[in-house]
Specification:
3 helices; about 15% helix; globular; alpha+beta
């Protein structure tokens, strides 16, 4: 393959070999030997992550104002309680939308009638394979939460303007939530339209697999 066929060839690193140096509950740490574009050998250490989803849940308030559902959760590695959009890791073989529905229901108690995939982000490209899929949800119905053992978090709502102000002022520092706020701002402006799909659960019980209907006419 010549340079014209692969314009990034001068940037690509090639894996020579490698091995895991740590295997935990859901993360693996690897150390690989790689060949740099100039032919030199070096090492790369990184975490293998199963992938995750984050949900931006849109809630029509009693006053007619749009609000979003957020969480406050203590994050041990940074020793702080952080404000975040609902999120969680993928179970093995779990479809992304199913994971998004499950995490929203388990953490907040809400189920959503309509869903739209926004995109994805790589939050820590220098040392992790993690990819987070960003989803929006609307048509929320409240219900009971089902937190995992050892999971403690508060659920609350805020206006989009409040979320953006908190990102600006440093009250929100979680990278995926900052990305979600940026996406939300552009969606509300009409700059980044979403393709909504109605999702119908088979029985509506927790743990059910939901089915996706065709997007509503004119969905955006």
């Amino acid at each position: 393959m010549d340079a014209d066929a692969d314009p990034d060839r001068h940037l690509i690193e090639a894996r020579v070999d490698g091995a895991p140096v740590f295997s935990g509950h859901f993360l693996q740490a690897w150390r690989d030997r790689v060949r740099l574009p100039d032919g030199q050998l070096t090492q790369r250490e990184y975490l293998v992550h199963p992938g995750a989803v984050m949900v931006v849940p849109l809630l029509e308030g009693a006053d007619g104002r749009l609000r979003v559902v957020l969480e406050r959760q203590y994050r041990y590695p940074v020793g702080q309680v952080l404000i975040e959009f609902p999120a969680g890791k993928l179970d093995p073989g779990e479809p992304v939308l199913t994971c998004a529905q499950r995490e929203l229901r388990e953490e907040t108690g809400y189920s959503a009638r309509e869903w739209a995939r926004a995109g994805c982000i790589h939050p820590v490209v220098s040392y992790s394979t993690e990819v987070i899929e960003l989803w929006f949800a609307r048509g929320l119905t409240p219900g009971a939460r089902a937190l995992d053992d050892g999971e403690f978090l508060d659920v609350f709502t805020a206006t989009p303007d409040e979320v953006l102000a908190w990102c600006r002022d440093g009250r929100i520092t979680d990278a995926k939530t900052v990305a979600g706020a940026f996406w939300l701002q552009n969606v509300l402006r009409g700059d980044w339209p979403l393709q909504w799909q109605e999702v119908v659960a088979e029985t509506g019980a927790p743990g059910d697999v939901a089915k996706s209907a065709a997007p509503p006419e004119g969905a955006a």
